[in-house]
Amino acid sequence: MPPGITIAADAPELSAANTGFMLICSALVMLMTPALAFFYGGMVRVKSTLNMLMMSFISLGIVSVLWVLYGFSVAFGTDHGSLFGWQGDYVGLSGIGLNELWDGYTIPVYVFAVFQLMFAVLTPALISGALADRVKFTAWALFITLWATIVYFPVAHWVWGTGGWAFELGVIDFAGGTAVHINAGAAALGVILVIGKRVGFKKDPMRPHSLPLVMLGAGLLWFGWFGFNAGSWLGNDDGVGALMFLNTQVATAGAMLAWLAYEKIRHGAFTTLGAASGAVAGLVAITPSGGSCSPLGAIAIGAVAGLLCAMAVGLKFRFGYDDSLDVVGVHMVGGVVGSILVGFFATGGGQSKAQGLFYGGGLSQLWKQLAGVGAVLAYSLIVSAILALLIDKTIGMRVDEEEEVAGIDQVQHAETAYDFSGAGGGTAPRTAALPAPGADGVPTKKNKKVDA
Predict the structure, then answer these.
(1) Is residue 446 domain-resident?
(2) Annotated region Disordered: where (predicted)?
(3) Assign residue 98 a region: left if phi > 0, alpha if psi is -120 to 50, beta otherwise?
């Protein structure tokens, strides 16, 4: 996927080892979408849990079908004007031979297609975290369909498709800093500027209902990200995939530590939510840069991303945009940081010979990175806002205020995440002492109202 790859003169043969490795990586990337659902699901209030899970899971259904029908062709077909691809035998994936190899590699086209499919599924699901509590499920499904078609598939071609303008320019994006994270983060910002704030934003407490669920999701994301990142070299014949694997681990660790340090200094505590968010920020930042930097550079990139993303999540309160679960603050900012820092930390000894400013390469690679970042951010932001506006003016993007207050799970899915009707049983013994009002969990006149 990254630019700067040298293809051998002799035609490669199918490698069973690389094929198996890539199938495993594809499964790991697929796992990231349910992991994201858990991560987001734990961060919302109880009344929105199922909706957050479903906003991720529906992407598995919609985007998988679109990818087979035409998505793979648009993203990786024959280039047209450096903006999008199209290739007849990729439409419906009907003209591809069983053992036909992806050009220049030792894996079948089908394996490359399914690996990239998992990226296409995950990216729109990332957007959903910014829209918690307030979006109609039918509107979300329509938005995914249009956004994947008009934004994700063409941008994937820009960045990774042969002939795509960013690919040909030499923009380094190993596994999706621009195409996935900046793309999704900018889209999230575009949509929330259109649909507005949640009822009670900056007034009511909107705390995560299950931090253990958040930590489970973060851990599964960290695990799946090794397939996401290391698999993006599309093989295991040299040390670049191993470098990316190592850099993924240490950058994530550096970001988590930096976020926690910032939290301790700023707020006086090390929180589990901060640890989970810091880890994700590091994973995002190393995604574009890990194949081009050293392990020490990866730690630095992670630490910078952890610090800046921790600072960025508070901007929504200052500027008044309701990014419910900090998609803009973590994914857009983290993607921008990781993509730009390639221009500083690229050693020239990883995925390509391109060198950053700290390794004697001057400003050449930095300007390329800035071009890629700026173009993807602007395109996704503007087009996503337009799509949201069109949907809002036709079928409506938001649920009614009363439905939002009552709980989007019940309204949109006719279910609740937790059913306690069958829990417990029996009564307390008559001799048992009742806790005094004001003790943990016991309502008083002052604390009787409990946030849903």
Answers:
(1) no
(2) 421-452
(3) alpha
